[in-house]
Amino acid sequence: MADTGVSRHQLLIDGKWVDAVDGATIATYDPSTGRKLADLAAAGPRDVDLAVAAARRAFDDGPWRRMPAEARARLLLRFADLIEEHADELALIDTRDCGKPYAFIRDIDLPNMSDLVRYMAGWATKLEGRTIPLSRQDPTAYLSYTRRQPVGVAAQVIPWNGAVLAATWKLAPALAAGCTVVLKPAELASLGPLRLAELAVEAGFPDGVVNVVTGTGVDAGAPLVAHPKVDKVAFTGSVETGKSIVAAAAGNLTKLTLELGGKSPNVIYDDADLDIAVDGALGAVLYAQGEACTAGSRLYVHRSIIGEVRAAIEAAVPKLRIGESSGRDVVVGPMISEQQRSKVARYVDGALEEGAEIIAGGARPRDPGYFLEPTVLGGVHDGMTVAREEIFGPVVSLMPFDDEAEVIRRANDTTFGLAAGVWTTDIGRAHRFAHAVNAGAVWVNCYNVFDAALPFGGFKQSGWGKEMGGEALDGYLQSKAITISMA
Ligand code: NAI
Ligand code: MG
Questions:
Q1: Which of 113, 121, 124, 358 is most buried, by the most CB atoms less than 10 A from its CB?
Q2: Mind listing the pLDDT tens digit for each residue in 122-176?
Q3: Whether CATH 3.40.50.150 fits 7-260+462-483
């Protein structure tokens, strides 16, 4: 078996690395080669019980609750330093396990991770309440104030695309708020989150504050999100699984935040700087093989420039470097699995059957590795499956539009609302689009710009609640109103 760079392939429960109680394991693979990387402990309901019990004890009775906020902030700062010190290593582990190109993880995800942990460390000492004068009382009769308290035990379920990043987006606000956590990484990419958990242990979080259960969605994820001792569930992944998690959490009315999929529109106006716009729009969906929830998979281009844009795409797409994800100049890695590759290929085949044509790409390079050439489709109309469903692969539909009202209506004609992009040099047009589009993130003349200070999260079926920014803390805090009679 390959050296994964992670010393523990076990579950982290109460500060100890342990096997699953029944000894079960699950294999994880390198999608660039199809080679097995490691066998991981596969948690089941009994392991989930143990992890939740540990998180529960750590929250209810452990030193964590009594720890001064400044000490919590210091632990987070130490954690951020460790992430930074181990950035190359974390990036390499994650790239091999999930297939996202190394450069994206090392140069974009890792800096964002240490930034976010530091940003959240800053919040730990600033979780203030308010004093509120009662409106119907003699002002000297009562003192009322609010306190923001941690929700409790947070169950966090994350996907495989950019696993270390997803894990950090979840852990940082929960820990800053003072919650304890049971993290369930995706079975296809758990190695990065496991290494991150080792660093959390090294940073010195008390036992039971960070627990990790690896395993499948059915055996580990489902019992975790339905667990009666869990106070809050945070999920990132597909809409379908999101809906089943809502149903599971409904049994206990567990608090819930969701970061789900998207079908993000990207609009190029005729006044845009075309070199920047075409490169940006292709990057928005084809780099990192389109396995991103924000993928700008509906590309609307003003009819007057569509020929020019098409020619630029035909020239640019074959130059996108495809290869093993650890290659330093690779921008398109493999799909996470053969299953994902066939699923994406079926979308392309279906579009062709419905009358679309391939403008660029479309080939399925041979094994080993689950590669798929970046693919640009023409002849797509809004009603086609390929224009409506999240594909989660390097596939984009190029569609013409004629005027502003039309393209805004079409951009919003989707059940999703995660992100949107617009490319124009007309400032009024840019703002009008940004205000009118139903999406949680809007990028003007750029795409996929994330920041620790900026809240990220979807409208409509793209989710509930925000990650990053001060708003991410809202999901892990609840405010209590306290009233004292001064009589
Ligand atoms: P998924 O959404 O089912 O998996 C995400 C996480 O949820 C994993 O950790 C998984 O183990 C867990 N999970 C699965 N079922 C669960 C359940 N019933 N209860 C609790 N946890 C559960 O995504 P999956 O199966 O990896 O991929 C399915 C499709 O979803 C992909 O083909 C892709 O199109 C899409 N997807 C979208 C993502 C996004 O961020 N928009 C992320 C991952 C996948
Ligand atoms: Mg893997």
A1: 113
A2: 999 999 999 999 999 999 999 999 999 999 999 999 999 999 999 999 999 999 9
A3: no
Cβ–ligand 1 distance for 338 under 6 Å, the answer: no
pTM (2 d.p.): 0.98
- Whole-number Å distance, alpha carbon 65 to ligand 1 midpoint, is 32
Question: How would you classify the pairing of strands 395-401 and 375-378?
Answer: parallel
In the residue annotation, 259 being an active-site residue is answered as: yes
Most ligand 1 atoms within 8 A of CB, residue of 238, 414, 467 to mutate: 238
Tell the residue number behind the tokens 């020019």, with chain if given.
308
Ligand with the closest atom to the CA of 6 = 2
Question: One of 98, 187, 293, 324 is an active-site residue; which one?
Answer: 293
- The predicted-structure confidence for 241-291, as pLDDT tens digits, reads as follows 999 999 999 999 999 999 999 999 999 999 999 999 999 999 999 999 999
Confidence of residue 7 (pLDDT cuts 50, 70, 90): confident
- Same fold for the pair 7-260+462-483 and 265-452: no
Superfamily the domain 265-452 falls into: Aldehyde Dehydrogenase; Chain A, domain 2 (3.40.309.10)
Least Cα distance to 231 among 477, 433, 62 occurs for: 477
Domain-wise residue ranges, the chain: 7-260+462-483, 265-452
> b/e for 197-232, b at 16 or more Cβ within 10 A?
bbbbbebebbbbbbbbbbbbbebbbbbbbbbebbbb
Q: Which atom of ligand 1 is nearest to the CA of 343?
A: 32
d(CA 86, CA 6): 12
Cβ proximity of 185 and 236 under 8 Å? no
